[in-house]
Structure formats: C-alpha cells, structure tokens
Amino acid sequence: MYWEQKVEYAALSDIGMRRRNNQDSYVVQIASDRGQWEDRGHLFLVADGMGGHAVGELASKIAADTIPHTYHKSAAPTVEEALHSAIVAGNAAINNRGQQNRDFARMGTTCTTLVLSSRGAFLGHVGDSRGYRVRGQRIEQLTFDHSLQWELLKQGRMSPEEIFSREPRNVITRSLGPEPVVQVDIEGPHPVRPHDVYILCSDGLTGLVVDEEIGTIAREFPPADACQLLVDLANLRGGADNITVVIARVGSAPSGVPTDSSPPDHHETDGVLGWGWLIAVFLIGIMFIFGNVLIGIERPFTGILLEGLSVLAFGGLILTWLRIRRLSLEKASLPAIVPGNPYRTASARVTTKFVNDLATLEYRLQRSAMEEGWNIDWPEHNRWFHAAKTALTERRDSDALREFARAIHVLMEGIHAQRRQRDLTNRWGVTKPAPPRTSPPRTDPPSPQPQADDRV
Question: Could you tell me which residues come within 8 angstroms of residue 17 by beta carbon, excluding any fewer than 6 positions away?
Fold first, then answer.
C-alpha cells in the first residue's frame, strides 16, 4: 500500500434496542503525513466491553485510549511488534484499574485493531469482535473468534452441528483485563490491493447479520452508508447488544507505481466450473454426436445406446454438481475454520434473495409505522420506496438494494423517535406523541422477483 492511496472510512456505534448504555468503543486514526504513515500507518480499533453497569464501558474506553497512544509512542522497530506491545499495555491498564476497585474486578473488553501500513494490513486481536476483508466478490474473516464455540471447532472433537446447537455463542475464552497476562493474536501482513474493504465490528452485528450480508453491504455501499444499513439491519433483527462497525475502503493505486500482482485467492473462483468439468461435458457431447452419426449410417442400436449413455452421464454430472453445491452451501452456514488466514470466506455478491428479503422487511416495517402512527417523513420515504420497487421490477438488484436501504433508514428514524418519546414518558410523564409529518402513503408490497438468476 502507498501513502498516496486515499482511504475512505466511516464508523458508527449504536446502543442497540435492549441496552441502557453503550459498552463499545472505537478509534480511527489516519496518519497526518508521510512520515507518520511510513512509521506506523493508519489505525482502526473496535472494543466491546464486558461487565455490569459502567464497568464494560470503562474497560473498552481504557483500551481505546491506551492502545493507540502506546502504539504510536512505541520504540519497537516493526508494526507487528508495536501493535503487540500496545495491546499488552492495554490489558495491563485495564487489569490495574480493575484491581483498584472491587466493583471493577475482572472487568474486560474484546479488542480488534487494524493497521494499514506500507508493509500491508496487520490485525491485533483478542476476543470475539471481528476483522473482515472484502476483496472482489468475497468476504474473508481475518480474525479467529476467541470463543468457546470456535475453540471447540478448532479441536475438532465435535461436529459443527453439535457445537452450535449445544454450546452458548456468547462465551469468550480470551479478553483484555481480567488477567494480568493475555495472549494476543497478530495476523499479517496481508497484501493490500486497491479497492479492498476492511471491516471491524463487535458481536452485536455478527450475532444478527451473516457474513454474506456484511460483505454485500460493505461492497455495494460507501463506508458511511454501509455502516448505517448494517446497524439498521441488526436493530431490526432485535438489536440485543450494542452494535459497532468501522469500515475502511482502500483507494486506487497512484499512477506509475506497481501494484500487488499476486494471484487471486482460490476462493474467488468459487462457483466457476473447473477444467475437469469442462472436459467431462466435452466428452459427453462427443459421445452424443457419435451416437447420432451411427444412427445416420444405419447402426441404430449402437447409436441409440451411446445417446442414452451420454444423456445419463450428463444427468449424473448435473446431479453431482447440485450435490456439491448443496454441501458447499451447508458448509458455509457454519464456521469452517481452516489453518492460517483467512479463517473462512463467503460470497459478497448481490443476490435477488437478499434484495427480496430486504423488501419484505421494509414493507413490514412500513405497515407497522402506518398502523402505530410513527412520526415518519412520508414524502422522503415514499420517494425511496417507489424507486426501490421500480428497480426491483426491472431486476436492477444493486439499485434496489440501495433504495430499500434509504427507505428503511427513514423508517428507523421513526422507531428511534418513538423510543425517545417513550423514555420521556417514563422519565417525565410526557404522554402526547409528536404528530406524523404527513399522511402515510398508500403502498402495496413489492412483488418478489424470481431467484433462479441469483448472481452467486
């Protein structure tokens, strides 16, 4: 990566729908000049605090204050050494603070830190907050969850189905603060290519939004809009925890300089038929043509036999491909942890199914807003909603995705206004709700589009 490459970034932290305080913290530090860039690069951090009341909030704040400061002041000669020592210092600071007050004992936080530097991307990681990279049409998880489920998967003694049906998801095995010493994972350096998108997020997002959706949204939207839609989507699915997202998109390489020419990751060819499949189809086609020729030269029995065998072989080939694809999709639904990096990957392509799901979600939310009289900017909503319906009808999935996202956000503002009104009512006894801005529109639900042409 080069200093001249611009980085477009955004961050958003939300309390969620069920929490009373936000225990997440984040940091974005862009190098101010070439010297700082060459020395330490750009830094991004997400921390998810754990503990009752303000304890988790304090732990994540200490991490967000200590780690970047220590990292930039470190005398370590390399990025990875400076990053490691900074996270260790963050753990010591949280642990020392916890020992000074009984109420703060064993407070902790997760921490995932990304550095984009001249040597590539480095991640320092403790806990189950995650770091992703979207490259091309794939999203790749670059960090290992320090959770009970992932540790059991790593041991390989139980099947993924057993682990994810029996073991709790939110039990983490490593965090900053509870112990004086912590093991820190440093991943990288990963080569940085133009237009790579990096995502850091707390488990308030990943517990409710799957990797494919995260990758699609981060790929299709500018960072600020992507952060907003991801938070909105997590809140609409329950918002059980605080939600924090940091997204950084790497710009084009400066003209006249070489770019990383390493071959594409093998995952990028997922879904593409290999040479073996093409050769098999070619041979089956030759067999069918030869059988047809034999029928034409008055050898019907042999010709029909060859044609029948070729049809059976082609049918078997299709069934085999469908089975492999089904197994691949089933495998993708659970973390398939592999040694090294990335730990797992998924498609980041827009699919008709995802757009249809978003359309259904938007329509249900819209009906709730109309029935309950939320304070909605209906003209603004109606503009985006009808544009989304038109795009969906014309099978412009990417455009439909963007317009539905805008319509959903207008409705989400109504939800947040309702929550603020409820809080005022509970605190001060204010009971009169704000009137709606205009009369709600009369709308019909968008018609789901066929999904056979999903670009996956």
Answer: 235, 238, 239, 240
Block residue for tokens 């091309």? 136
pLDDT at 430: 54
Q: What is the pLDDT of residues 54-71, one digit of tens each?
A: 799 999 999 999 999 999
Integer Cα distance of 35 and 38 in angstroms: 5
Q: For residue 11, give the nearest of 42, 44, 43 by alpha carbon.
A: 44
Token pair of 7 as six digits? 């980085």
Residues 6+ apart with CB under 8 A from 215: 132, 134, 138, 139, 346, 347, 348
CATH class of 7-254: alpha beta
With CA atoms as reference, report the closest residue to 233 among 387, 11, 16.
16
Token pair listed for 299: 């050898």
Query: Does the pLDDT value for residue 200 go beyond 60?
Result: yes
Residue 306 to residue 436: CA distance in whole angstroms: 72
Token digits of residue 64: 């967000």
Token reading at 218: 């981060």
H/E segment holding residue 396: none
More confident residue, 114 or 263: 114
SS (HEC) of 68-119: HHHHHHCCCCCHHHHHHHHHHHHHHHHHHHHHCCHHHCCCEECEEEEEEECC
Amino acid identity at 386? H
Residue 343, number of CB atoms within 10 A of its CB: 21
Q: What is the pTM of this model?
A: 0.83
CA–CA distance, 224 with 220 (Å, rounded to integer): 12
Q: How far is Cα 24 from Cα 202, in angstroms, rounded to an integer?
A: 8
